[in-house]
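Posting for a labmate who doesn't have an account.
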Amino acid sequence: MYERKYHPKVHLEMAPKLLRHAVHAADLQTQAPIEIALVSALTAMVLCCQGVIDVRSPPGFLSPVGLYLWVLAMSGERKSTTDKIFLQPIVDREKLAEVLRAALRDRHEAACTVWLIRLKQLEADLAQAVKAAKDCAGLEEAIAEHLGNKPVMELYPRWLYHNTTIEALLRAFRDVWPSAGLVSAEGAIIADSRVMQHLGTLTELWQAPELMRVDRITTGGLCLQSPHLTFSVMTQRAVYDEFVRRNDGMAVKMGFTARLLLCEPISRQGERAITVATDESTQALAAFNSRTAELLEESVVAIKERRPRKVVTYTPEAARVWYDMTRAIESDLQPGQFFHDIPGFASKIAENVSRVAALLQYFCKGTTEIDVDTLNSARDICQFFVDEMKEISSPFDPRENDIFYGQLLDEYLVRYQMTTRQTEVDINQLKQYGPNRIRHKEKLWMAINNLCLLNRIHTEQRGRRTVVVLHWGYI
């Protein structure tokens, strides 16, 4: 008998309704892994918000809300279909901008023609004045003023890039639109492109520097003001592995992977059912896309009118939760603890949580003060990516199976009981302090189920807590 292998790794019970309902609606319509729908939704949220808001963490550091997302999934997982659902409002807005761009370009070319004719006339007047040995100060000043008034092409919104070079992307930040996304459901196009040869630049763009100077001998320099970039690609696992190995692991050494929210959903192929969109799913996606379109227009107005971005802050209660979270992360950097082998990634978790929380608060609730519920939801979402990064970055051990995990947990519980004289332990404590190899939720439950079958332990529900109860054999 065929045993179902797919189960979602991420749970959105605590997420705001607007996001949760839209993700589940896309899951129903596409039958793609729910994690892919979540990443597509987050991508749309970032692209329409990063030109409007920044987030200030409790210590006072101001950060952009851009995210660097990478999904590892096989061909046939309906990545493109899911992306299309959530990015359609952005594509539609770009189509409208392209129509307007043609008219803008015609007006710009006409203005440049008139400007050039006037420049030539001033130069001719100057040449005659020099030839006649007349005072040229007035003409020189007029030419200098005219050169400073050269027509500039009006900015027009464009967010989506996939087949580009780093030079073209940087120039687009200045000449086209200061908010962009490297986005592709066929991410090998980006992963294998020349733009990924400039990891230092991409790493710098994650922080959206207030002033970014790019000096070039042949093409001249660029001075960019607060360029905002989102990175969201979906590729096969082999593409990511090859990218990480490239240039002796330069992506890891330069901190690019430390900024990634990375995941590898379980495949749904072979288990997908034919589904029909319901009124509820259609309405949920319509509501999400309507909010995306609304914020895109707010972003366009804010950028064209050079309005300062709104600053999303924390309530005092949420700030205390954030500080507790950062202290727990710091503690887990100690030798033998959860983050000991990925300190660079751990150093960015708190900021990624802030960015996701700001997106959830502003996109889903329309307010600029992060509350505890929103922060907890952002923390749960980022915990999923944390578990995935830990799993993907850990070297493969061929011994790993439910029996192996059960043995690891059994040895830990024996030591735990001998040390504490306790016969119960909370699941969350095992996730935080248990053996490194089984701190991933899926592996931990494989270990627990194995020991339950051996009658070594059983689990009990105590309100919202799950407790592992040790049997007499441990005492």
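Reply:
Got it, the structure tokens are right above this. The chain is about 55% helix and 15% strand.
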